[in-house]
Prior knowledge:
The chain is built from 2 helices and 5 strands. It has helices spanning 9-21, 57-71, and strands at residues 2-3, 33-39, 44-53, 83-92, 96-105. A hairpin with a 4-residue loop joins strand 2 and strand 3 (44-53).
Amino acid sequence: AGISYEDDIDQAMAVIENLAKNDDRIMSEPAPVLAVGELADSSVNFAVRVWVKGADYWTVYFDFPEKVKKALPFLLKKVPPSVTNSPAICSTTKEESKLGFSIKLN
């Protein structure tokens, strides 16, 4: 997810982390990874990596970025005008899948 340079990084990361922890489809082990993925021209973009069961892969793939997009504007000072979802499809097994994506809000 991405935020404006004017916004609070820690607060935005806490919101995304909380969304992951409260989504029953996202596994707690291995723990989700949330990091600053890019310092872009007009936004600070986060990289999010979570583990899900194979059966939940596509629903989380599409649903979680939407949850982030809906949650972040409540704390942002300046909401960037457009959204680009750039998913990274990672290795998959029958039992679990690693789902990674970056969301740019710029």
